[in-house]
Amino acid sequence: MPTLLDKIWDPHVVADLGNGWSLLYCDRVLVHDLSGGRALQEVGEAGYPVARPDLVFATPDHAVSSAPGRTSETFPTGARLLAGLRKRVAETGVRMFDLGEDGNGIVHVMGPELGIVLPGTTLVCGDSHTCTNGGVGALAFGIGASELKHVLATQTLPQRKPRSMRIRFEGAAPAGVTPKDMILAAIGRFGAAAGTGYAVEYAGSAVRALSVEGRLTLCNLSIEMGAKMGMVAADDTTFQWLHGRDFAPKGASWDAAVAAWRKLPSDDDAVFDRDLLIDMRDIAPQITWGTSPEQVLPVTGIVPNPADAPDDEKRNAWEAALTYMGLTPGAPIAGTKVDWVFIGSCTNSRIEDLRAAAEVLRGRKVANHVTAWVVPGSERVKHEAEAEGLDAAFREAGFEWREPGCALCVAANGESVPPGARCVSTSNRNFVGRQGTGARTHLASPAMAAAAAVAGAIADVRHYAA
Amino acid sequence: MEKFTTVSGPAAPLLRANVDTDVIIPIQRLVGTGRTGLGPYAFERLRYEKDGSDNPDFVLNRPQYRGSPILLAGPNFGCGSSREGAVWALMGMGFRAVIAPSFGDIFFNNCSQNGMLPIVLPMDIIDRIAAETEAAQGARHTTVDLARQLVVTPDGTEIPFTVDGRKKEALLLGLDDIALTLRLKDRIEGWYAADRAARPWTWEGVER
């Protein structure tokens, strides 16, 4: 009967607080430069010690330059934040993976990569894309500054158990369809608020077939559907991927862990509050056209006309989005001229993402008018990619090969897409101003982004098969 | 945390769907800044012209809604990023309550951590409050009474709303969650000791 959610949530309840609230134990906490230093400082100033510094891990990622040859001083505002974080982790005994060090990277890339997050664990971080970590079968969610302070002081959080939703993706992935396309298609179909109040479990044959990297991408966009938690049950794919990672259990302990983790998947007769199905045959490579991730089309689609909107609210939203994006209703989305391409972010900056993009670029060149950046998700991804020669492949095609961090996903590091410029981005948010004031963002997979860079316009990756 | 009991004033309408936290406060304003002083940057991409002057077409710039303590919003308000700065910016603008048909989960939790009350009401009621306020040019007020769990519209209609009991108490008294939780410190440590024995693999890799 129990779901994966039940099997992780229930054993983590320290106390029933009444009114449907539980005090939930947080097995791991991740902090980053944007809010981590302040949170640690505020806990201290309030007179509380950090409850379990051994369960807290820090990495600078948000406000660090991604420029080749960068140092922590390259972006001065971020340098002050990083100095604050360094001071507080030193005082409190929190482990930090500092800029340029092995283990450093985007918080939701380095967490799984180091085995900090494990199946069946709870993990929180002051970042909404913490749901990414659910890709290894954990219950992971983003929290605000006050909740972060609470968890640092107590290792727990008062939370209400979310409702359960399952989305099954059944069938084989059609050509050009990646995990990014799967989740964008789901958001397009169900809406940007469909998951509000839910924890989403992704299941079905197409999810089972995904690598852990792909599952992390899938879970990453849960929050763009409104769900602060997304999960894929751990299986042999997960165990093989996690085995030997820095903080994963070793030896006999590993064997005991795997035996326990095998009992975590939802029971066959588990009932979900909402159970949805997507046939993989219905998914084509996706590209967003608007300023909400739900405003998404297959790349073969045409820009929608507000006159066709189902209601006034949508009509107004579509009109505002089309104006901001500078698009014409009725025109094919493919062929729309692009100025920038960004491959990176906690959504799509892992080794498989870089391989997929490099595959499209092989023997091709970035269009002259396009500025194209690739920002690996972590030091390890960067070194692995360089060992495979991917950096050279990107450079030869005309991409800039940059240093790990959040970079153009959130534009908190002094880097941004210029006003009015159009960017195909592998990140997770196409919100107004997200990549810079006036920047126009189209979300897509790494391969689609690479195809757009080559075409100089939004392009169907299926025409660029290797 | 600031207490919340009752709040009264013109209710300002921002009735579009999916207003995300990037729109409420751009990340650039939160890099290296504190919890205060963010009011002038709330909604800045909608609120100001390129030259920094007020955008006269932005509804919250209209004289009758300036300094309004109640924001009327559309579905999925506060979706997106976990930045608590979105709440700090709204409070800096003077808002103490937001009424919407639905909210982003993380934003919703962040509100009550700061003495801001998020209220879920159906869109038709929100539209009605907006229409009544507009008809009176903002001269008639809406009241939010947390103790009685009522929104009183400009025309005097009392609309009940639900609020989580735990959050209601915390807002009414301005309670600090951490102090309450630490009363359970023995249970937290007891939970850990039991789990350490039951699931040693979760802990062995990270312990020092």
Automatic annotation (TrEMBL), chain A:
Q: Which reaction does it catalyse?
A: (2R,3S)-3-isopropylmalate = (2S)-2-isopropylmalate
Name the InterPro entries for this protein: 3-IsopropMal_deHydase_lsu, Acnase/IPM_dHydase_lsu_aba_1/3, Acoase/IPM_deHydtase_lsu_aba, Aconitase_4Fe-4S_BS, Aconitase_4Fe-4S_dom, IPM_dehydratase_rel_enz
- What range(s) does the Aconitase/3-isopropylmalate dehydratase large subunit alpha/beta/alpha domain occupy? 6-456
Keyword hit for Iron-sulfur: yes
PROSITE patterns hit by this protein: ACONITASE_1 (PS00450), ACONITASE_2 (PS01244)
What GO molecular function annotations does the UniProt record carry, in alphabetical order? 3-isopropylmalate dehydratase activity
Q: What are the required cofactors?
A: [4Fe-4S] cluster
Assigned EC number: 4.2.1.33
Keyword annotations for this protein, in alphabetical order, are:
4Fe-4S, Amino-acid biosynthesis, Branched-chain amino acid biosynthesis, Iron, Iron-sulfur, Leucine biosynthesis, Lyase, Metal-binding
Pathways involved: Amino-acid biosynthesis; L-leucine biosynthesis; L-leucine from 3-methyl-2-oxobutanoate: step 2/4
Q: What does this protein do?
A: Catalyzes the isomerization between 2-isopropylmalate and 3-isopropylmalate, via the formation of 2-isopropylmaleate.
Q: NCBIfam families, from UniProt?
A: leuC, PRK05478.1, PRK12466.1
The protein's assembly and partners: Heterodimer of LeuC and LeuD.
This chain belongs to which protein, by name?
3-isopropylmalate dehydratase
Organism, as annotated: Neoroseomonas terrae
Automatic annotation (TrEMBL), chain B:
According to UniProt, this protein's pathway is:
Amino-acid biosynthesis; L-leucine biosynthesis; L-leucine from 3-methyl-2-oxobutanoate: step 2/4
**Keyword Amino-acid biosynthesis attributed:** yes
Instruction: Name the Pfam families for this protein.
Output: Aconitase_C
Q: Which UniProt keywords apply?
A: Amino-acid biosynthesis, Branched-chain amino acid biosynthesis, Leucine biosynthesis, Lyase
**What EC number(s) is this enzyme filed under?**
4.2.1.33
Spell out the reaction equation it catalyses: (2R,3S)-3-isopropylmalate = (2S)-2-isopropylmalate
Q: Which residues form the Aconitase A/isopropylmalate dehydratase small subunit swivel domain?
A: 1-122
Gene3D superfamilies the record matches: Aconitase, domain 4
EC top class, in one word? lyase
Tell me one GO molecular function of this protein: 3-isopropylmalate dehydratase activity
Q: Which InterPro entries match?
A: 3-IsopropMal_deHydase_ssu (IPR004431), Aconitase/3IPM_dehydase_swvl (IPR015928), AconitaseA/IPMdHydase_ssu_swvl (IPR000573), IPMI_Swivel (IPR033940), LeuD (IPR050075)
Q: Does the keyword Amino-acid biosynthesis apply?
A: yes
Q: Could you tell me what this protein does? A: Catalyzes the isomerization between 2-isopropylmalate and 3-isopropylmalate, via the formation of 2-isopropylmaleate.
Oligomeric state and interaction partners are given as: Heterodimer of LeuC and LeuD.
Family from the record: Belongs to the LeuD family. LeuD type 1 subfamily.
**PANTHER family associated with the record:** 3-ISOPROPYLMALATE DEHYDRATASE SMALL SUBUNIT (PTHR43345:SF5), 3-ISOPROPYLMALATE DEHYDRATASE SMALL SUBUNIT 2-RELATED-RELATED (PTHR43345)
Q: What is this protein called?
A: 3-isopropylmalate dehydratase small subunit
Origin organism is Neoroseomonas terrae
